[in-house]
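User: Show me a protein chain along with its predicted structure.
Assistant: Here is one chain, sequence first, then structure tokens.
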Amino acid sequence: MHKLNGASADDITRKTYTALTRNVVDTVVAAGDFSTFAAAIKIAGLTAPLGARGPFTVFAPTDEAFRKLPSGAYEVLLKDPAKLAAIMNYHVIPGYFDVKDLKSGEVKTLQGTTLTAAISAAHAHVNGARITRADLAATNGVVHGIDAVILPKRWRLAVVPV
């Protein structure tokens, strides 16, 4: 049997699949760029619902995306868990959709209203937020990192005057 760099031909042709062990919430936490989103999920009381059932496709704003919010907006949301839960659920759609499976158009979120996906060969966006990190697979869905916090149509975030 021939060996290439210490590996047999069988080793080279055999595909190794790693079993998924993290749900979407744990995947968000482990990814490292979504700590603000992960904290918001916890505060909104969504850790168990998003951790147990599915499948879900989660559009997770990065920590940088949260820093783009108006001054004080996130802090105001933290004081209103019901509104925070609605906004976090707006970032989640039912089903498992890798980026290649997404189609342009409207799709209903767990919050109950629709978001708009715009998909091209070059870019994928949801409500204008660009998908910057795609296809983080989880046991109960998939996570895509986005560069903005998205809101349902006509929703605005309250801000604290400076």
